[in-house]
Amino acid sequence: GDLVRRRTVSSRDPVAATRSISSLRITLPSPPTETPFATMRRTLSLALALALVASSSALAPGSRVAVFGGTGYVGSEVCSRLISKGYAVTGASRRGVNPKPGNEVLDKVDWTVCDASDPAQVKRAVRDADAVVHAVGLLFDVDSGLSNLNTVVSGSGSLPGESSTYEVVTRRTMFNVIEALEAKNGNNPLAKLTGGGAKETPLCFVSCAEAGWPDVAGGTFVEENLAPEWLRRYLVAKRAVERRLNDSKGGIRPVVYRPSLIWSWDKLDVLPVIPVFNVASAVGVPFVDKTVKVGTLADAIVRGLEDDEVRGVQRYMNMEQLAKMA
Fold first, then answer.
1. What 8-state DSSP symbol labels residue 135?
2. Model confidence over 101-111: pLDDT tens digits?
3. 110: which strand partners?
4. Most exposed among 35, 47, 197, 216, judged by the fewest C-beta atoms under 10 Å?
5. pTM of the model
């Protein structure tokens, strides 16, 4: 500033020094007037900074997760854990009702009827979702000739409908989810603002250990020479989804879980064969993976949703590690 008046004052004269200081007048420059263009640029810079901060933050309680197959064996366990951690959960399934009426935790899920083979219904289900889990599946489709056994081997005891083939139940439903998220993320203004740099949507898919047979010794031989026809078709659908997920560029963070047998102490149909799988895996049979408890799988899925570093294929050892961190 400009000093309008100056005086040399002896430090030995405090009275004169006080009068001199009080007589000083400092003129400060006026702040420049910001132009509309500068204001707009500053606002856009702030929005970009906020978008980048959002893109680096992991999924946290309070976010909404859509769980397709939420009434099923795996899906209901995932819903229960998400609710217990403070997430808002949309449970999407053909039934659209709490599979355990009166269960205080599952009563808090927003259950909705959704035919995941219908693209329009899938789009509605993921519209407000920050993350998605696909746990829709069946072991025996209507073309296997064994579909009645699903009431025994299915954890939820569901019976497939007339159109319940692996093509429809596995491939088409998951393709609909992927395409809905790609369309949603493509229309996200933050994604456009940051050149596609908005936060990726976590998408967890429950595949199976046998989908990895081509990658292990003896796996291809077993599949081509020993596996029944229905199992080969089952694997075709699972692998088609895995490839589609891997090829997606629509702001999705894919996490693929490959469990072998999924079990719990109350699932009596698989308990006798659990030791067979576990022993075979322990002695190093490359095409047999250790079994996975349904609770371990559900915990691993929740952790996969929350941790931005988790992506790609997760085998049983990865699931066990993720479950410990959930």
1. -
2. 999 999 999 99
3. 90
4. 35
5. 0.80
The alpha carbon dihedral of 284, 285, 286, 287 has a sign of: negative
The residues that bridge with 205 in the sheet, in sequence order, are 134, 256
Cα–Cα distance measured from residue 68 to residue 135, given in angstroms and rounded to the nearest whole number:
6
Scanning the structure block, which residue is given the tokens 């022993």? 279
Q: How many CB atoms lie within 10 A of CB 210?
A: 23
The span from the CA of 302 to the CA of 204, in Å, is 9
Phi, psi of 173 (to 5 degrees): -65, -40
Whole-angstrom distance between the N-terminal and C-terminal Cα of the chain? 60
Name the H helices within the chain: 14-22, 36-55, 73-84, 119-126, 150-153, 166, 173-186, 189-193, 219-225, 229-247, 274-282, 294-306, 316-325
Chain position carrying tokens 């047979």? 213
For the segment 129-179, what is each residue's pLDDT rounded down to a tens digit? 999 999 998 888 889 888 777 666 665 556 667 788 999 999 999 999 999
